[in-house]
Amino acid sequence: MADISTTGHGTGFLLCFSPIRGDPPLEFPCDSQGHVDLDALNDHDRTEYLAARALIGHSFLCPLVSAGMLIATR
Questions:
Q1: Cβ atoms 6, 42 nearer than 8 A
Q2: CA angle 69, 40, 8 (to 5 degrees)
Q3: Transmembrane region positions (predicted)?
């Protein structure tokens, strides 16, 4: 999950990719329309975001935008 302290992208919205199987969801800071600022993500989070986007329908459901705070996990 992207760390808001390293992205500096605290917009108050999250783009959440829920996995089809039992893995934890991936969340990324975004704007109200679900646009993620790739330049604001670190390399690891950018790679995870692009992979999740490419795997919609295979490993992840369509992402949803939600209002909320991103919790720093690293």
A1: yes
A2: 45
A3: 50-72
